[in-house]
Write a structure and sequence with these properties.
about 270 residues, Tetratricopeptide repeat protein, SirB1_N, mainly alpha, two-stranded antiparallel sheet, Serine Threonine Protein Phosphatase 5, Tetratricopeptide repeat
Length: about 270
């Protein structure tokens, strides 16, 4: 079983082994990553956190858990420009710095080990957490409570004041959705750090993990363009054209398709 197969197999467990799956994603990019050793490290972390948590009902321990992780050094990676290590779980465990999604996956793993109810929320631009039934969300980067007004402010900071907060932004995220979001993050980070081959690995995983958007095909088409694979680029541009309803984007896609060579070449 290769790293991709091991990652997907983690999602078939009940409950899904989300953090282990994220380690197998890291192993796709670095063969020296040992998911089993990392999982042993997480058991040690669980024991350390459990001794520091206050004596409260389990339903009230999510925020203390996040605060303990923060106190132990697990914080948002503020380095600019952001590097792929901020979204590779093995590096996050080593450096104790990462994107909010990676910190959330770590918190969800620890919450599951400690029987603390907690779920992911696919908030755009900054992944969040929630105790089921609570009237607020939690920032995985330290545990700050976020009420609707805070969420509107966060959304405005990320996307400007014209994007309204909707129920769609507050939906719980499945394990597959979280890994697909992680794969999109890595695709972008590897692309912006001039590693098209690594980005292509992430782009292909995005396609395997769930429903895709026109932007996913466009992102992979651009990688194929960089790697001089025009037939693969054509395939993805044609699929993006089928998925988009934007007339301007449809025109640009048609023009780009027209510029591709018509002769077949091998995909490498």
């Amino acid at each position: 079983m290769n790293s991709r197969q091991a990652c997907l197999a983690c999602l078939e467990r009940e409950p899904p082994a989300l953090l282990e799956a994220s380690l197998w994603i890291a192993a796709e990019h670095d063969r020296s990553v040992d998911p089993a050793a990392c999982m042993a490290q997480l058991r040690d972390l669980q024991r350390e956190i459990s001794t520091r948590l206050p004596i409260l009902p389990l339903s009230e321990l999510a925020q203390p858990l996040l605060r303990q992780l923060n106190a132990l050094g697990f914080q948002q990676d503020e380095y600019h420009p952001l590097r792929p290590q901020a979204a590779l779980m093995d590096k996050v465990l080593q450096r104790r710095r990462g994107q909010p999604l990676l910190l959330a996956i770590l918190a969800l793993d620890q919450a599951q080990r400690l029987s603390i109810p907690l779920e992911g929320v696919n908030f755009p631009g900054h992944f969040l957490l929630r105790v089921p039934g609570a009237d607020h969300l939690l920032d995985p980067c330290g545990g700050r409570r976020l009420y609707p007004a805070d969420c509107r402010e966060l959304l405005a900071r990320q996307f400007g004041p014209d994007l309204p907060l909707t129920g769609e932004h507050m939906r719980s995220a499945t394990s597959r959705q979280m890994l697909q979001r992680l794969s999109r993050n890595l695709r972008q980070l590897h692309s912006s750090n001039d590693n098209a081959m690594a980005a292509l690995v992430d782009a292909e995983r995005v396609m395997q993990l769930g429903p895709v958007q026109a932007s996913d095909y466009l992102a992979r088409a651009t990688l194929y363009q960089l790697l001089d694979c025009p037939q693969a680029e054509r395939f993805d541009l044609e699929h993006a054209l089928l998925l988009t309803d934007d007339p301007v984007q449809r025109l640009k896609l048609s023009e780009r398709l027209g510029q591709l060579p018509s002769g077949k070449r091998s995909i490498h």
